[in-house]
Amino acid sequence: MEVIIKKYEHLEQYNQLMELIKSEGEEWEAYLKPKYKTALQNSITYVAYIGNKLCGYSRSVNDNDLYIWIVDLLVDKNHRGNAIGEKLMQCLVKDFPAQDILVMSDVDEYYTKLGYDKEGSIFLVK
Ligand SMILES: CC(C)(COP(=O)(O)OP(=O)(O)OC[C@H]1O[C@@H](n2cnc3c(N)ncnc32)[C@H](O)[C@@H]1OP(=O)(O)O)[C@@H](O)C(=O)NCCC(=O)NCCS
Q1: In terms of Cα–Cα distance, which of 42, 39, 2, 3 is closest to 21?
Q2: Could you tell me the CATH superfamily of domain 3-113?
Q3: Residues of the chain with pLDDT under 70
Q4: Which of 18, 59, 101, 107 could be joined to 72 by an S-S link, Cβ 3.0–4.6 Å?
Q5: What is the distance in A from the centroid of ligand 1 to the CA of 81?
Q6: Is residue 70 within 6 Å of ligand 1 at its C-beta?
Q7: Ligand 1 centre from 80 Cα, in Å?
Q8: How far apart are alpha carbons 114 and 118 in whole angstroms?
Q9: Alpha-carbon distance 84 to 26, whole Å?
């Protein structure tokens, strides 16, 4: 099972990516809105393929070459545990070797498992 990571091609891959997001249920449904379409296009977005099946993606934003923030990472439920998430992360490291890369984590155990160091935490500002 070969996993290929590609740069996101907006018109070709948007519908497939939305199918992946729909399959996650209500937790991800805010991303079905049109403004997320724009966000995908304006971000550093990678998609993971097995054959013709889009089975994962990452979306990151470049903060003026100071940092790259990984804001979304998702792997299809049926394809988890095959290092697709890890490959999506490594792709950024390879393409942006001179940048500090940070991830907005919802799953600290996962990133710890990948060997990353924890730096701070996130608060919702009111
Ligand atoms: C988190 C996620 C992206 C991991 O993708 P994945 O491709 O299955 O992960 P990998 O195959 O690269 O996993 C590597 C290792 O981390 C472990 N791991 C995966 N998810 C984990 C989790 N949530 N907590 C702890 N460990 C986890 C795997 O078991 C694997 O360990 P192993 O090598 O001993 O088998 C995927 O589970 C997912 O999409 N979850 C829902 C969305 C989400 O939580 N995204 C992150 C938001 S910040």
Answers
A1: 39
A2: Gcn5-related N-acetyltransferase (GNAT) (3.40.630.30)
A3: none
A4: 59
A5: 6
A6: no
A7: 7
A8: 11
A9: 23
